[in-house]
Amino acid sequence: APCLVLIVLLNYGCILTMPYDKVQPSKRPSVWNMKEVVLIAVLLGFISCASSIGLLIGGLTVLDPESSLYKHVWAGFFHLPLLSYE
């Protein structure tokens, strides 16, 4: 319960500070560079997807004691035991 009270108070503090922003509005509307935004979004999505697939493949490969990843990295470099589901 104390954590919930802390979250509520912090949220309330954020809400109170929002209306007192001192930003001066510009005379022209801001324009977003959508090519850059889309490029960065696609790049970050690709990196996230590739790292997730790499972690999945690495994790599944470590379970096989005959794989080179297990022999050279898991058991060779780190000297860790074989993982099992049992």
Structural features, described:
This protein has 86 residues and is mainly alpha-helical. It contains 3 helices and no strands. The protein has helices spanning 2-17, 34-62, 68-77. The two termini are 38 Å apart. The relative contact order is 0.06. The mean pLDDT is 86.
Outline:
With 86 residues, the protein is mostly helical.
Write the layout of secondary structure elements.
Layout: H1 2-17, H2 34-62, H3 68-77
Primary descriptors:
86 residues; mainly alpha
Structural class designation: mainly alpha
What is the overall shape? elongated
**Number of β-strand runs:** 0
Helix content: 55-70%
- Number of distinct helices: 3
Over all CA atoms, what is the radius of gyration?
25 Å
